[in-house]
Amino acid sequence: MSKIIAILIVALMAIQIIKPIGLPGLRQRRDFWKLAVVAFVAFALDVFLTHVV
Asked: Residue 1's pLDDT band (boundaries 50, 70, 90)?
């Protein structure tokens, strides 16, 4: 699951740098770092759900 999330987030970050996605908060190329924050939260949630629960 974490590999799928990683590939998806890296692809979204590359797309954001090439052509902004246009969602609220992701309208400029320099907003790709916000996707990294989302990735960090997704990985933390994945680790929490697989190891704790």
From this structure: low
